[in-house]
Amino acid sequence: MMKFSILISAVMVATTVQAADGISIKLNPSDSAPIIAPEMYGQFTEHLGSCIYGGIWVGEDSPIPNTKGYRNDVLEAIKELKVPVMRWPGGCFADEYHWMDGIGPRSKRPRMVNTNWGGTVEDNSFGTHEFLDLCELTGVEPYISGNVGSGSVDEMQKWIEYMTASDGPMALLRKENGREKPWKVKYFGVGNETWGCGGHMTAEYYADIYRRYQTYCKNYGANHLYKIASGGNASDFHWTDVCMKSAAKMMDGISFHYYYVDDWNAKGSATDFDADSYYMTMGHVYDINTAIEGHSKIMDKYDPERRVGLMIDEWGTWWDVEPGTNPGHLYQQNTMRDALVAAVSLNIFHNHAARVKMANIAQFANVLQAMLLTKGDQMVKTPTFYVFKMYIPHMGARLVPLDIENCEVIEVHGRKAPVVSATASQKDGVTTISMANILIDRPQEITIDLAGMKASQVSGGIISASDIRDYNDFGKPEKITLRPFSGAKIKDGRLTVKLPASSIVTLRI
Ligand code: AHR
Q1: Cβ contact 412:276 at 8 Å
Q2: 118 C-alpha vs ligand 1 centroid, how far in Å?
Q3: CA 356, CA 208: separation in Å to the nearest integer?
């Protein structure tokens, strides 16, 4: 067992309402606070490793229990999480994907080499029909990523026509392939990471390309596209400035990707890490807040009404692959550290609900910070899965701004993180408060001022671990799951909570 060493620098702020030594939170409900878009709980499904093949799709002839080729356990998990939106087919893969290869009889579809991800040969058995039918079956909104890097305007236009038109040559082709009615497709991405794997373009060049491609992203019948431009890398504010200046009026959203990686050459193990590196990661999570603020400020300049959404359509942890697995498949385990990263990130996103209209954690199954891991017919729900499950009440709820006072800040190698992160929202007369204690060795006493709310009942759930490196594994009982929480009491309009070390709690009042 590694020894955890902690360096804490305490920053004490004057308090208004607080327990003897504890943290105080004050809720400030307001009718003008923004709604947390349900799409902030979106997922990303790329043709990468076993995210699609094996993770979601096993084919109708598989011995693994399936419905029309989709794993039954995964279908259940999608419904359990009430997944609002799924992005497909990539990522980098999207800019080498030619959709016509993935339609028609499966036995006749050409094979392809997935050059981005391990050189794996794919048989194209999962294509447009399979993805859009999956979305229909599970009530998920599809988000299609179009190919700009190696695809033509014509190819993109025809794909949209194929999916959404009720008549015309592409609609006829779709009907010949067994689908009479057009699908409803709202979200459409015009390229992915066009600064990198999507074409290595400059911001200026892409802005023009975006204007051109989006012209041919047409609305057929009642289908109305929400067009998303490819954003710059992490904190590339110049990119946002150039694209917004040139094309804000021609877009509905601009994407933004952020992975919590300190050193791309030494990302570190997903399960074997010490306290210092854990706290550094938690500090890194707050950098996304700075990046969102930076992009939002530029967007405010060109779009003060906040019509254009900032779409965080890839985010999460990115560790070294599990030993013995294909380095191009990005398969990693998922510990309590990942759960805390997810909770703190979502808390941050909520605060930007006026601008952030979607977020898609990378990725849904078997890749990076996954909800699910699969091996043959087995499936594991990760700690991150349980955070998404626990946070469902926040989806579509009105944000309740809050102040946190008397909260220590932990600092490791220059990275700083408040030891408690919290968020609150209201929907249908219920207030939901989520809190995360990132400290691994100390509980936190928290007093919450309910701002005059008449409340006598509180119920809650908790995700916690005795070791931050705990994870759920195949064939073993779940170490980390969502459990009932009884550590909260309401008295005289105040709520007191004891948050265990390394835990995430959600209360419903
Ligand atoms: O999620 C893995 C990859 O990360 C995506 O394909 C790409 O868009 C990003 O660089």
Answers
A1: yes
A2: 13
A3: 24
> What's phi and psi for 381, nearest 5 deg?
-90, 125
Residue 465: CB within 6 Å of ligand 1?
Answer: no
Active site amino acids: 193, 314
Q: Whose CA is nearest to atom 9 of ligand 1?
A: 91
In order along its 509 residues, the chain shows pLDDT tens digits of 333 333 343 333 322 333 346 899 999 999 999 999 999 999 999 999 999 999 999 999 999 999 999 999 999 999 999 999 999 999 999 999 999 999 999 999 999 999 999 999 999 999 999 999 999 999 999 999 999 999 999 999 999 999 999 999 999 999 999 999 999 999 999 999 999 999 999 999 999 999 999 999 999 999 999 999 999 899 999 999 999 999 999 999 999 999 999 999 999 999 999 999 999 999 999 999 999 999 999 999 999 999 999 999 999 999 999 999 999 999 999 999 999 999 999 999 999 999 999 999 999 999 999 999 999 999 999 999 999 999 999 999 999 999 999 999 999 989 999 999 999 999 999 999 999 999 999 999 999 998 888 888 899 999 999 999 999 999 999 999 999 999 999 988 789 999 999 999 999 99
Establish how many alpha carbons lie within 13 A of residue 441's alpha carbon, considering only the half-sphere containing its beta carbon. 10
Compute the distance from residue 445 Cα to the ligand 1 centre, in Å: 39
Work out the angle at residue 329's Cα, subtended by the Cα atoms of residues 138 and 312, and round it to the nearest 5 degrees.
Answer: 55
Helix (H), strand (E) counts: the chain: 9, 28
Pocket flag, ligand 1, residue 199 (CB < 6 Å): no
Whether the Cβ atoms of residue 211 and residue 246 lie closer than 8 Å to each other: yes
Task: Return the closest-CA partner of residue 251 out of 202, 312, 210.
Answer: 210
Cβ(95) – ligand 1 distance below 6 Å: no
**Residue holding tokens 């990661």?**
281
**Among protein residues, the one whose CA lies closest to atom 3 of ligand 1:** 91
Task: Give the tokens for residue 428.
Answer: 């249908």
Minimal-distance CA residue to ligand 1 atom 4: 91
The minimum-distance atom of ligand 1 relative to the CA of 368 is: 1
Q: 396 CB under 6 A from ligand 1?
A: no
Q: Which of 48, 120, 193, 194 to mutate to test the pocket of ligand 1 (most atoms within 8 A of CB)?
A: 193
**Gap from CA of 227 to ligand 1 centroid (Å):** 20
Answer whether 332 contacts ligand 1 (Cβ < 6 A): no
